[in-house]
Amino acid sequence: MHNFRLTFLAPLFFLGTCVSAQQATPNLAERLGYPADTKLLIVHADDLGVTHATNTASLAALEKGSVSSASVMANCPWLPEVAEWARANPEHDLGMHLVLTSEWRLLRWGSVAPADQVASLLDSSGYLKPLCDLMAENADPEEVEREIRAQIERARSLGLEPTHLDSHMGCLVYYPQFFARYLKVAREYGVPAMVSRHEILEIGPEWAQMMTPEDLVIDHIYTAGTPDYALGLDNYYRGVLAKLDPGVSVLLIHTALDGAESAGMAGGVEGWGNRWRQQDFNFFTSEDFLNILRDEKISLITWRELAQRWAARK
Amino acid sequence: MHNFRLTFLAPLFFLGTCVSAQQATPNLAERLGYPADTKLLIVHADDLGVTHATNTASLAALEKGSVSSASVMANCPWLPEVAEWARANPEHDLGMHLVLTSEWRLLRWGSVAPADQVASLLDSSGYLKPLCDLMAENADPEEVEREIRAQIERARSLGLEPTHLDSHMGCLVYYPQFFARYLKVAREYGVPAMVSRHEILEIGPEWAQMMTPEDLVIDHIYTAGTPDYALGLDNYYRGVLAKLDPGVSVLLIHTALDGAESAGMAGGVEGWGNRWRQQDFNFFTSEDFLNILRDEKISLITWRELAQRWAARK
């Protein structure tokens, strides 16, 4: 069944509880020249490219402006639809949702790099494995790097110039040997890899030691988990927004229209399934959400804006 | 735009006009021991795997029994859904719709074989080319063979044992260098490659010379073209069924449910688009169609049944 590693790690790493040793460290907003109490938020839609229903909802939410950023899966069939939109809307913020897993039962995908050059990532049918842990058991870090480079290059070949990198299901973050490649590739392309200060501190010292002062590191990453879904996603999002710490945060969401295609993808799974994705779309395109942003004095920002400010800080 | 080679070739090769030299040749039904006036028909749904909407319609039509056979595209994301159904319904007739093109604008796919081993088939983004002619300009026949073997092996690895082979958009049929590979692979796997006697005769002597007496060759292949769509698919199908010659015929159709996913795939193209596919589903699951079969004394048959009779004829 659907057993995302993220599910288990989310309570530990993503809930943004303050680490006492960090209280004195200036948050990213301050380091970028904003007042210390500024709350900047990237509302980030994951999984573009996986289905037409994901693209339809996510591109509409980006156009509305209430979702500020999104990232694409280059291994998935509907990437060309996102790329066509990206070419027509180059001001929008699209990154690479780097893919090392193929987690659904009824639709699956393989690598972008030639299969024989990333064989350690693939199963006997040529598909990526369903879970990060299964991937990590055999994956050669060299092949991981080759695959993520190929994904970036496919998107670029279609005219989609990514503003940032992030990691589908967190596979590139939770294993030091892959995290090093994630950072290396991001630095070479001159774009941020999505990493949060609190996440890094809590995973372990080995992760923090891989970072350099040149790396743009946001303060918090929030994302709903299955217990939040059970209690109501609206409640979860309202809670996150009401208690948002100052600094730069990312709220990871998964917008898609419910319907036969999304239900087929989910294959009966509720967690990160079709109903969840429609609820994400509904909440983040609602007037209610915009009102909360205004009331809580939260400003939306993009990865492109962050990176430009970061480059200009010197 | 959508410029299938099949569109132009259909009037020449697929309409089943009798070739005078062939009048004396016994049709395949006779050769299999049926009375000479027997009309056997495979109603064949193409393109399974390409979308969830295609799978939903086509698997329902197979279960109803009014579509007798279908074939799958192993390069496409929803192959695992078809394979799951095939494992649960092994009595049904599923073949490989061998893929050398990726013809839609908004969703695309690459090879199943490692990209570096079939580089002559791929564009600079790693996708198959949109048209047979574009594919044929550069395709190395050795790489064509490698790719179609990889497609068959992916399906088999998922528990789908193909009953026959056919060719998406006809790419394997219309070029002698690829036709030879199509026949070679079918013979090795011991399954029929979809080829019709009239098609072969009309394409040219080179094609006929590649056939051996051991190859199972059906009499006619029918499929609607864009002019038929403009005049009404129902009219076309009624006409084909009313005038069906004795022997073994295949009627190629494309069943899918209309909706956002199918419309996204078609991208505004009418020919072989979403409306067409829904009309195919409607006609071939109607009582009307079953009544026509009865009135015209047409019996549905499968590739598996044909191959078994062919093997037993000696």
From TrEMBL, chains A, B:
Alphabetically ordered keywords of this record: Carbohydrate metabolism, Hydrolase, Magnesium, Metal-binding, Signal
GO BP annotations, alphabetical order: carbohydrate metabolic process
GO MF annotations, alphabetized: deacetylase activity; hydrolase activity; metal ion binding
Signal peptide segment: 1-21
Alphabetized SUPFAM superfamilies for the sequence: Glycoside hydrolase/deacetylase
InterPro entries documented for this protein: Glyco_hydro/deAcase_b/a-brl, YdjC-like
Listed cofactors: Mg(2+)
Domain of life: Bacteria
Name of the featured protein: Polysaccharide deacetylase family protein
Organism encoding this protein: Neolewinella lacunae
Taxonomic path: Bacteria, Pseudomonadati, Bacteroidota, Saprospiria, Saprospirales
